[in-house]
Amino acid sequence: MKINKSIAKLSLKSSLYNRSSIFILLLQSIIPVLVMFYLWSGILNGNREIGGLTNSQMITYYVGVNFINFFIWYAIDWELNNDIHSGKVSNILHRPITIQRYYFTHGAS
To answer: Average pLDDT by consecutive 10-residue portion of the chain (109 residues)?
Structure first.
């Protein structure tokens, strides 16, 4: 477990190294949030709630899910894409760790 924490820390430091790409990714993630905000505001305009969720709860849920998704999956998608194109994924598949665990603990480096 200690090794997984160390690997996760290193991958976080590595991903924060290039701050311009982080800024661009954050900017890209803001646009869908704004679109969904206006979409749900329009849908819920006359109603108090849909499916037990109010307008503010729906928007909070959507923003929270996107926030978590941004920090977990974008880095993993890019890393997997790079590893497939470079041929490194075959070396990863031969390790005694599942590929899901490898990318979750390794992150973008």
So the answer is: 73 68 74 79 73 78 78 72 86 85 68
Q: Give pTM, 2 decimals.
A: 0.40
Calpha distance 37→31 (Å, rounded): 10
> What is the domain partition of the chain in residue ranges?
2-106
pLDDT at residue 108, as a whole number? 44
Give Cβ neighbours of residue 67 (< 8 Å, ≥ 6 apart). Answer: none
Residue 81's pLDDT is 82
| CB 108, CB 75: distance < 8 Å | yes
Compute CA distances 58 → 32, 37, 38, 68, 72, whole Å.
Answer: 14, 9, 12, 16, 21
What is the rounded CA–CA span in Å between residue 17 and residue 76?
16
